[in-house]
């Protein structure tokens, strides 16, 4: 869509150059986030593996000690034995249930209407909503900045930038923004009325409109959203790592 707009506006070279820079920056950001996720993923896999081995192999060996004992076992011990029997006998059923749940969820999201309901729900979940809003807003602002600075009309730029949004609820909000701008409203007022875009982005766009440097402020807004996203995810990783160790320790101690 950006290439098509660049061809129509006669700024194809500038659009391609900006698009190349945008793609490189996006790839760099994605690599940083993927690298930050490696250690927490290893912790999760290790925790699940240790607990599964304990419940499937260690506990059944110890249960034999109580087989000929008619004494009433403590409740925690009975719980561990029941869970161990379930792990040993129905592990295949758990795998089928997980695979079936994932496949069913993907099938459910194939319908655009149901997918939009799910995306609307994600925007109401604490923390997740902030991550999604920051990520999509940065993409939206960066794309619109490239288009506006390349000479593409604002309405056409809004239509194209809305298509890069991965969240369908935010994409519908971008269409509403384009409609308000087409009716003569300012971009900042339209973003504010949508009530889904970050307030900092709205203020920076308003400043850009007032100073006549909209594309520059859109670019700064995109960088600001990306920095905020990296900071939030970095803090999450720092919290998640010790939390996973504590959770795994508590479960193993309960089994012991």
Briefly characterize the structure.
With 256 residues, the chain is an all-alpha fold.
Class derived from helix and strand content: mainly alpha
Uncertain spans:
none
General form: elongated
Mean pLDDT: 83
Q: In percent, how helical is the residue content?
A: over 70%
In N-to-C order, the SSE pattern is HHHHHHHHHH
Q: Please count the helical segments.
A: 10
What's the total number of strands? 0
Q: Estimate what percentage of residues fall within beta strands.
A: under 5%
Please describe the biggest sheet, giving its number of strands, its sense, and whether it closes into a barrel. none
Determine the N-to-C terminus distance: 59 Å
Query: What gyration radius follows from the Cα positions, in whole Å?
Result: 26 Å
Keywords:
single chain, 256 residues, mainly alpha, 10 helices, 84% helix, 0% strand, elongated
What does this structure look like?
The protein is mainly alpha-helical and 256 residues long. 84% of the residues lie in helices and 0% in strands. The chain has 10 helices and no strands. Helix 2 packs antiparallel against helix 3 and helix 2 (12-63) runs antiparallel to helix 5. The chain is elongated, with a radius of gyration of 26 Å. 23% of the residues are buried.
